[in-house]
Amino acid sequence: MLIEVSDLSVSYGGLELVRDVSFSLHSGDVLAIVGESGSGKTTVIRAILGCLPHEGRVSGGKVLFEGEDVLAYTPAKWRHLYGTKAAMIFQDSGSMLNPIQRVESQFVEYIREHSPMTKQEAAKAAEAMLKKMHLPNPENVMKSYPFELSGGMRQRVGVAMAMFFEPRLLLADEPTSALDVTTQAQVVKEMLEICRKDKTTIIIVTHNIGVAAYMSEQLIVMREGQIVEAGKTDTIISQPRSAYTKELLKAVPQVGGERYVS
Amino acid sequence: MSAEKEKILEIAHASKQFPVSDGRMLTACDDVSLSLYQGETLGIVGESGCGKSTLVKLIMQLYPPTSGVICYRGEELTRLKGERRRQSRRHIQMVFQDPSQAFNPKMKIKDIICEPLHNFNLIKKSETGKKAGELLKRVELPEEFAERYPGNMSGGQRQRIGIARALALMPEILVCDEATSALDVSVQKKIMELLVKIQQEKKLSMVFICHDLALVSQISHRIAVMYLGNIVEVLEGSALKEAKHPYTKALLRAVFPVRTKGSAVIGLLEGEVPSPLELPKGCPFQTRCPECRELCRQEKPVLKEITGEHSAACHFIS
Q: Which residues of A touch B274 (CB under 8 A)?
C-alpha cells in the first residue's frame, strides 16, 4: 500500500468542510476525484500534501504514506518527502512559476534543492526532462520567461518539474482545466505515459469527467465535503448508483448526445 | 436553416488587425464571412487565440473592423455614427464569460438589470423595482433578489442576472461569449435550458461562443469552426460528427468522452497554433495538418459549399 487515507476530516475555522474521506492506493494506481466546485475535492489533496490554507487544519483521520503517518511530520520532514517522493501539479503552472525568473533558473533551483547536482548537470537534466514531455525546442523553453510560453507549454513545464524525481505519488489539481481540448489531450497523454513508465501513483482532481474516465481506474465522486460514490471508474460511469452521480453524468455535454434545439 | 428564414445579421469579409509594438500587424480575424438568421443559434468554436472573442467584439461594435462590413437587417453598422450608432446597440446585447466580474459590486441587482433601460429612457426611476421583478422572473430568480448585491449570489445566479440584463432591452440578437464556461456542469445545464426557453419564446437569435465542442453541438443550429482568425468549416449542429475539415476532425478526436475505458480513442493534434503575427502563406492549418500537401502551402483555400448547410475551407474536400 503506497498511500492510505482513513476517515480524513478537514475543518476551516471550526467548520468541518470535508468529512470521513477514505481511500487507499497501490503503486501505479490512478485515482480521480470528481465533483463540483465547493465539493471539497481540492481540500482533500491539499490535506495530503500538507499545504492547507492558514485557517484549514486536519481535524480527524490519518494519512499514511508508505506506512508512515505524515500528519505527524515536522516541516523539515515534509520538505524531504514532497518534491522527491511526492509532487504536485497545479491548475495553472503559470502562477506556480516565478514570473521574473527564466524557466532554467527555477528548474535548476528546484533540482538542486533536492539533489547534490552541479548547476550544469541540473540544467542538462532539466532540458532532457522537458524533451521527454515533447516540448518543442527545449533549449528555448529553458531560456524563456514563463509569460513567453503558451498555457499548454507552461503546464508541460509544470508536469516536467513535478515528474523530475520520479515521485512515487503525483497529486494533480485540475491539471488540464485551463487548457484547450487539443492541448488537454496532449498533456493528459504525456502525463499518463511518463507515470506508467515509472509506476507512479496518481491522484487527479478534476471536474472534467471525461478526463477522469480516461485516466483513472478508481473514481471518487464528492459532494459537500463527503464521498457520494466510490469504486471502479468503469462501473460508476456505466452503472452509477447514487442519484447525484446519475444527475452529474447526465449534465455532462457529449458530442452526439441529447440536443437542446432541433 | 433554409432560405425562407430572415437574415438578421451579416458579416461580410470582416478582418481585424492590431498593430504590435514593433510595427508588425497581428491578424485576429482574417476575412470572416458569416450570416445569422432569425431564431437561430450560431455556435462558434475554436482554440484560445483563434479570434472568436475578436469576432464578438466586432459584432458588438466594441471596435471597428479593419476592413469588411457588418450589417444588421441590411443596415451597415460599421458606418453608423453618433446617436444612430448608439440606438443600434439596443438590438444586440451580450452575456459575458465571468459573471463575477461583469457587474459593479456596489450596485444593487435591480439597478444593474435596469441600467440599460435607463440608458435609453425607456422607464422612469420609480418603475425600476417593478421592472426588475419582471426581468428576474424571466430568468427564474425570486423577485427578492432585486435588493441584493452581486457579491452575495452564486455563480449560476449571477449568470442569470447577466442574462436578465442582456434581455432588458429586448434585443433581437444575444451574444454569449463563453457564458457558461465558468460554471459547474449541472448549473451549466440549467442555464442552457433557460437560454433555449427564452430563445423559443422571443424568437431570439443567438451567437454562442464556446470552446467546448460538445456543448456547442447541443445548443447550436449551425456551428462555425475558427482557426487562426479564419472560419474553416460551417456545418449543422446535429451533423458535427460528419465534419470534413481536418481541423474540426482533430478537435473532435481530442474530446474525452464520458465512456468506459477502451471505448474512447483520443487522437492528438501535434504542435501549437502558429503566431498570428506571421500568418503562413496558403492554408492557415498547414503546419499541423496531417494531410498537408504542396498546394496547401501555396494557395489559401476558400470556404466553399459542400452540401446545402455544410461548407469547408480545404483544397481536398469537394
A: none
